[in-house]
Amino acid sequence: MDGPNDAVVPLERLVALERDNALMLSYILDAHRLSLTLPPNATIDDVNYGAVDVPGMIERLRRNETYDLSRALTASGAARGAAETEQRARNKELTATEKANETASLERAKSMNPFEAMAANTKLGSVGEADTSSAARESSAAVRVDATFFNLDDDAPTTAYSGELALPELYSKLNDAELSELAFEIVATIDLDSEMLEAIRIALDVDEDCANAVQKYAQEHKSSVAEEGISARIHLRSMLAAVKEFTLLEDEAFYKKRCRAMCELLWSRQCDEQVEITDARDQDDNEPSLTASNVLSEINRMLCLPEIDALWVESVAEMIESALDSKYSFSYSGIFGIRLYERLLRVMFDQVEDYALAYDAQDSIKSLERVASSLGLPDETSRGAMLAFAVVKQAIVALEEVGLDYGDDTSPIFSLLSKAREGLDRSQTNVSPQIASAVNSLLCWSMFMLRDFMHTVTPPAAHDEQNVPRIEPDVFNLIVCIAYDSAKMLGKDAEALLREACKQSARAEYKRLRATGMEEDNVTDGDATSASLRIIAQLTASAADSYSAHLERHITSSVGSNSPVTGCFAAQLGEDFKNDLFSWLASGPRLTAQSLETIWSVGDLQNALVATGGDAVEPIRLEEQTSILVFTWLNEKIDDLHKIVDRCISVERWKTKNDAAPVPSAVDFLRAVNETLDGFFGLRIPAHVSALRALTEGIDAAVGKYANAAVLSLGPADDIVPPVPELTRYKKAIVDDLHKKFVAASPPRAPFEEGCVGASTVRLTSLKFLLDKLDSLEKGIISKWNEMQRVASMLRHPNALHEVPKAAWFEDLMDLARQSLRRAIDQVANHMAFSVLYRDLGGAVMHNLYAHGVQRSAHNIGTEILPYVNGVLGYVAVRVDSSTRNIVASHLLQATVSAWMRVLLNGGPGRVYRPEDVELLEEEMELVSEFFLAGGQGLDSVDVAARISPMSALCTIVSLPTEYLCGQYLELVEKEKEVPPRESDRDFYYDVYTADVTLRVLCHRAEHAASKWVKAHFSIGKTEGGYSMFGF
């Protein structure tokens, strides 16, 4: 005989369970796309689809991979495969002698009494230990199958939860009509008035003729039932009572259905048996083993006979009596008893008005208390649970047939579920396994109803899908309470189950919103994903608001629930959206107007989620995801800024003007800087303060590039100052001859606009323009940053902690830009000053100044240099501010001192001096100082003194006697061999206390002793050969 098929979910059942999943149907129904692996000799009909990991199978099939179904076989398929595999292994190991012995043993077994054969090898006739364990595994797997919307369970309460094994179909498959007949047979044996009995018959829908026959046979053993009590022996006695004089008074079905009822009892007893089967040779060959397992196997064989007779009935009755009386009573097994009681509870429903309780329902239930106790429901808790089970089944039928179309009357579904909730006592957690099974069915159904409440509860559901029934919020509230009470009775974490239901519904709702958002995408240009996400964010926020307005209070009203339970819905919505959002952000979208609108929409969504879910909603930490996008945007903008600098410099002609207006390139560059800053602050998304520093440093680099280009556009500065001439010694005849041939050079006559003064001034005005504007920009950066962060804070979680950046981040934001501009201004001013002294005034200084000596020369500082310098300062002063003018003046003073000292130390063979010249030189130094001090309106006295100090020191050396200078030179040479002269840290400072300066003073000394000393110590020519220009 084949093994049992336990807890099987067929293919059609799986399709019904997954009817909302079109992708699943396409894979299940299209056999050509299935790639499934089965054990040898197993077919697709052996698969228990209830044990299949459906999402995992779909994913494997999507990847064109093979899916192994060997672990999802029915008990019979698995047992058959295991047996065949075992047999093949044994065949390889058995010798010819062992095979012969096994054959002989099997032949002997066939000749034995059937009961003895079943005792020797239970696998041949019934479910043995191996089959039992396999069936138990299948029953456990069956509990993982979701209940359908309109069905608690065809065989509910499920035996998987109670721990009992379902009776295999080959032994018994009592349908509703047969259960109703058996239930009526029970109440026919107790004292009930005829009106009540008729009401029960009508409620059970038992045929009148059948009912009369049942009552007739019940009368024969009514006294015995009154004496012994209600038990399953009633059905056995009715079966025997229907046999008179070896004649069957009823049809075969009458006897078989009662025989199957006894099988229910025997199966339950067999599952509890713990008797070890002894070896066949230790048993009494004349005494059959009447265990429940053996009796079940024999009854199964007898049920398969083509015809039955009175002897058949008596034999079955005798076996059952013997098997049960030997060790067990005839009390109803748990599952069988509550199934019968559930049928009897139909009497409480009104037989005229559909889906309503009868007015005397409570009395009817009261009259069945004795029967309920005999069926395994001895207390109010168990009876109330079964009452809830029966009422919920009726409510499911009403929901399927009526739905929301019940007119102006009270919802029948609401009334029924209200009654069901009254029957559940959440304080009672110690319930029997069979009641736990019924309560578990209620829990499974209610959790199924709650797994997508946004789509089934109206409002907020507003769809027109005919295949998805809808319920009202009040009905939803009752279902939540039933789920909560059922979980408490089963000792489960009710809050955790409600949280999971909220999460499931949120996931299903987000999946629909996501599909809607993608369908509504009509963007032809730009980032389509960005537009879809923006729509999804708006729809998700609306869904959170709808949940809060219509459904949240119904969950919180269930006793024991709290904010973390209801907050899971909003938290799950946020989590699902965050996954999509972060995936999009991780792809590196450009921060365009579309993408920024999508990011800004997160703020409204998060506010809606937090308003609904409170602390349960995790912050959407945008800053961690958008930081890379912000820095990418910054890199692009800074690169663009550098390109603008290159373009501005390439087209700029630096044309001089009569006013202080900056050049166009400076204006264009400043506009680009402003646009970059405004664009950054216009992002209005969370960003770390380091992004602000990166922006300002990028602007600093661009400013430095522009400033450096402005300086380089003046040309090279290396050839402004002429090289130092070769040293010569004094020769009076040569000096006199040069003085006679001297012709004074003419002063410069070209306008300032055409020379270096005009070119330098236009650069100074432009650089100072940028410096002033950047100063004002920097003052507004911090306030704009704070405003940006205030707006961006709306995208953060309301309860998120805001980290205040340290003040050091905001110190000297654009200091490098200021330094670059100031350095450029200083370089331009220096370039202009030395160009004025060495190019514009080159002839006046290098040729005219002190051409006939200090005492007799009409060409001195006051006549050759200061008038022209005064004109330069006047030209500059009207075009720049006082600070820039002073910079120019300071460099002009430095260039003046440089050219002055050049004449004294490197003036050529015609320039000779005496110690008494120092008095006139000091007067000219005083004149120069007063000129640049300008009566307190010019340079600072400290700056003037510092810049003219090298000339003062040189005058001191010139005033020294020749003998002292010669000795001093030799000392300095020896000293500098050990310690070389130190370079000054100031560009305008010139150290004159060196051997080189002392030698140059001796070479230009108008004294024969000095010339003689030089001639004695050096090889220096007497003529002006090699004379050339130089300056320092």
Descriptive report:
Pfam families: TPR_PATROL1. The chain is mainly alpha-helical and 1032 residues long. Among the domains are: 11-142, no CATH class; 168-332, no CATH class; 626-713 and 756-816, Tetracycline Repressor, domain 2; 732-746 and 841-1017, Up-down Bundle (Methane Monooxygenase Hydroxylase, Chain G, domain 1). Mean pLDDT is 78; it is low at 1-33, 99-151, 153-167, 274-285 and 1023-1032. A hairpin with a 2-residue loop joins strand 3 and strand 4 (247-248). The longest helix has 37 residues, at 756-792. It contains 44 helices and four strands. Helix 25 packs across helix 26 (528-550). The strands form two sheets. A two-stranded parallel ribbon has the order 1-2.
CATH-defined architecture of one domain: Up-down Bundle
- The order of strands across the largest sheet is 1-2
Computed structural class: mainly alpha
Shape: rod-shaped
SSE diagram, text form:
Layout: H1 11-17, H2 22-29, E1 36-37, H3 54-62, E2 67-68, H4 75-93, H5 96-111, H6 114-120, H7 129-142, H8 159-162, H9 176-187, H10 194-204, H11 208-220, H12 222-228, H13 233-241, E3 243-244, E4 247-248, H14 252-272, H15 292-303, H16 310-327, H17 334-344, H18 361-367, H19 369-374, H20 380-401, H21 412-423, H22 433-450, H23 453-456, H24 473-489, H25 494-519, H26 528-550, H27 552-556, H28 563-586, H29 593-613, H30 622-651, H31 664-681, H32 689-712, H33 732-741, H34 756-792, H35 815-840, H36 842-848, H37 861-864, H38 866-877, H39 882-906, H40 918-933, H41 941-958, H42 962-978, H43 995-1003, H44 1008-1017
Parallel strand pairs: 1-2
Antiparallel strand pairs: 3-4
